[in-house]
Each structure stands twice: as structure tokens, then as C-alpha cells.
Amino acid sequence: MSIDSNPVSRLPLIDVETMEGPAGDTLRSLPMRMNIIAMAAHASTCVIPQLMLGNAVMNTQSLPGLRRELLILLAARLDGAQYVWSQHRVIAEKLGATSAMLEAIEELDLASAAFDEAEQALLGFGKQVIESGNVADEVFERALRHFTAQEVIEAIIAIGYYMTMNRITLATRTPLEPGAAAMKMRERV
What is the CATH T-level fold of the domain 65-172, as seen in this structure? Predict the structure, then answer.
């Protein structure tokens, strides 16, 4: 599969500046314009609840931010989702992700020494959640040795949210914003 950082969109982006109704009012109040939101706005009755969940994932979970971002990047890598990879690689780096961590996720080397034991457990858990949702008992138990029940469920919710966003961008070929750094990831295997 070839990863195209500037795909031709299959649907037009919604112009939130002219969008009517409560969804338009809310989207115009956001601090930045993102193509993924302009694409999701086609589902005007769902976009605000979706953004509320995204806000909770990004701002109110007890799961530490860097670990959340590692899971988001893993989901983007496994899905081949360049849009989310480009956006969240920057966030992960700001939260302390090292180049070795990013490279290990790109290579799907989730047991890499770049990760501590808890991160290895979380990424192994996340991979099984992403791939099928069926998590082996030993993988689940390993995650529970490092994370609370709340953090485990938050990890699943974060993964699910970003798998949805990955699929929106992949299915519609949502383009990166003009001027956004297209941070290439390895091709999906």
C-alpha cells in the first residue's frame, strides 16, 4: 500500500463558516480549523458528540498523555492512517516521545527497550485491542499490573475513538491541512 500524504478527497470538506445550526455554531467556536473535523461535519448530528468524546480522551483521562499518544500512534500505524499519524506524532513529541519510541512503533517493535515495562505492557494490550478486540488473558493481566481498571478502559476508549478518526480519514481520503507537516510512517504491513 502506498501512503499518500496529499490524497484527493472523496468528499468535499464542509465549510464550517457557512454551516447552519448548532453544529455550525459549535464548530466555528473551535480554536482551529482541521480537515478531519470539516469531514466529520457531514454527520452534523454526530460531530459534536464525537468531538466531546475526543476532548475527554485528550484532556480528562487519568491515563498519562504520553502513553495515550503512544496508543494513538499505534492505532494510526496499524491502520495506515497518515493523517492521524502526522497530527499525533507532533503531540507525542511534545509530551516526551523519543525518536526511538516513534521508530519502534513504526517498526511495530513493541518490546523495544525504548519503552519501559509499563509502556510495553500497554502497547501489547493496545495492539490486541486494535487488531481484534480479543485480548489474551496474560496480556490483559500484564496491563493490569501497571494500570488501573480506569486506565485500561480509558485506553480502550482512546483506541476506539482514534480508530474511528482513522477510518474517517482513510475512507474519505481526508487531506492534511495546507502547511501541515506530513510525517511519513512506514507502509502498513
Answer: AhpD-like (1.20.1290)
Residues 6+ apart with CB under 8 A from 109: none
Burial class of residue 156, CB neighbours in 10 A (0-12, 13-18, 19+)? middle
**Structural domain spans, the chain:** 65-172
pLDDT at 37: 96
Please check the confidence at residue 94 and state whether its pLDDT lies above 80. yes
Burial class (CB in 10 A: 0-12, 13-18, 19+), 157: middle
Total residue count of the chain as it appears in this document:
189
d(CA 178, CA 35): 10
**Strand, helix or coil at 178?**
coil
99: Cβ contacts below 8 Å, ≥ 6 apart: none
Q: What is the pLDDT of residues 98-113, one digit of tens each?
A: 999 999 999 999 999 9
Give the Cα separation of 112 and 101 in Å (integer).
8
Give the Cα separation of 125 and 115 in Å (integer).
14
- Closest alpha carbon to 159 in 83, 21, 41, 54: 54
